[in-house]
């Protein structure tokens, strides 16, 4: 694990040179492919050291982090063209990549907590430094205080775990003879539920997405929301007994909240806001699947986390492409894209169909597994799940039809074919999303 970390750290001096943007991007592509072939075939902890290690859950999310961070640099060429501190931007992206790599490969709860919180700093820099509007300061404050407020109880809970077990190693934690109460359970899970985010503590996410640059939206939707699900999967060996007692509260709250958020999506006129709210709706099903504590629920939640990371990041890239042409994210203005960019309409269709869990995307596998696990956990959830699936398709069709059809409002009648870089960027989101399902027996159901 240390060789990949050293590779990422030694990329940082290249940020000092003005013409190393594409060199860093190429080297990050290289390290992503090298890491891809270091697959842990034994389905348990491997490459263990004093601080870092890897199992299948870590492997999938580290690979997703490396991939999304490469695509962030590829999507942000406008920063290179404008000359608005491109070297510092690449440094922030590399620092964020290192923090995410350390978070997902930590084998101790305390080091996991430190890196979990450290990933907030470069995200805040991305929003405040390269955001679009003056409201980005308010969005940064929302992001900072929502996550910090919920994280201090988690630190207290981790220290309590150390006092009880004498160890914080993730692969040594168990629930045998552990004495803790409901307050301890809430302290341990609440920080991760805010990060995902769960309904009622989700208000920071749409604000952060709307004000963030395309790179900030990509990393928020692609990886940072998955930190919450990963943390829940890691701390549940300690919380198994409490999970069976209190899990129904989170399942009910997340699924009903996901239904309400799906209705919010139907009345959004901002492209990025609509995609951000759809992320909350998808993550509500992930929370429900994890809280069932069933094998199907955990495996399917992991599958949907990976699928949503690629799909939602691709949709944010598409919204940024239309924003660069129209200068607006409003669906009332940036409509009729099929007239202006007919070649881009195919990518809108492909990624929108993945967002509504159409085959052969990995989203379909994740949602089928989650529906199965939740209905087997309680058949009373069937009505909520039917409505959630229906409105998921409804707001995705609303997004596609309102953005692609209709008369072009701004008077632009010429065609824009798009750049090769943009087509490559979208292909690198869509292709893995539909390719992973071919080896899903290895990558998901051995978690």
Detailed description of the structure:
- The chain is globular.
- The longest helix is centred in the last third of the chain and has 32 residues, at about 295-325.
- The protein has one domain.
- It is about 70% helix and about 0% strand.
- The chain has about 450 residues and is mostly helical.
- The mean pLDDT is about 85.
- The chain contains 20 helices and no strands.
- The protein has helices spanning about 1-10, 20-35, 55-75, 75-80, 85-105, 110-120, 120-130, 135-165, 180-195, 205-210, 215-235, 240-265, 270-290, 295-325, 335-340, 340-355, 360-375, 380-405, 420-435, 440-445.
- It is a multi-pass membrane protein.
Unreliable sequence segments: none
How many H/I helical runs?
A: 20
Q: What integer value in Å does the Rg equal?
A: 21 Å
The average pLDDT score comes to 87
Largest sheet: none
Main structural class: mainly alpha
Number of strands: 0
Catalytic activity: a ubiquinone + NADH + 5 H(+)(in) = a ubiquinol + NAD(+) + 4 H(+)(out)
Protein name: NADH-ubiquinone oxidoreductase chain 4
Domain NADH:ubiquinone oxidoreductase chain 4 N-terminal: 1-103
GO molecular function, one term: NADH dehydrogenase (ubiquinone) activity
Short précis:
One of its GO terms (biological process) is ATP synthesis coupled electron transport. This protein is mainly α and 447 residues long.
Task: List the defining traits of the structure above.
447 residues; mainly alpha; 20 helices; transmembrane helix; NAD; ubiquinone
Task: List the topology elements.
Blueprint: H1 2-9, H2 21-36, H3 56-75, H4 77-82, H5 86-105, H6 109-118, H7 120-130, H8 136-165, H9 182-195, H10 204-211, H11 214-235, H12 240-265, H13 271-291, H14 295-326, H15 337-340, H16 342-355, H17 362-377, H18 382-404, H19 420-435, H20 440-443
Helix pairs in contact: 2-3, 3-5, 3-11, 3-14, 5-6, 5-7, 6-8, 7-8, 8-9, 8-10, 9-11, 10-11, 10-13, 11-13, 11-14, 12-13, 12-18, 13-14, 13-17, 13-18, 14-16, 14-17, 14-19, 16-18, 16-19
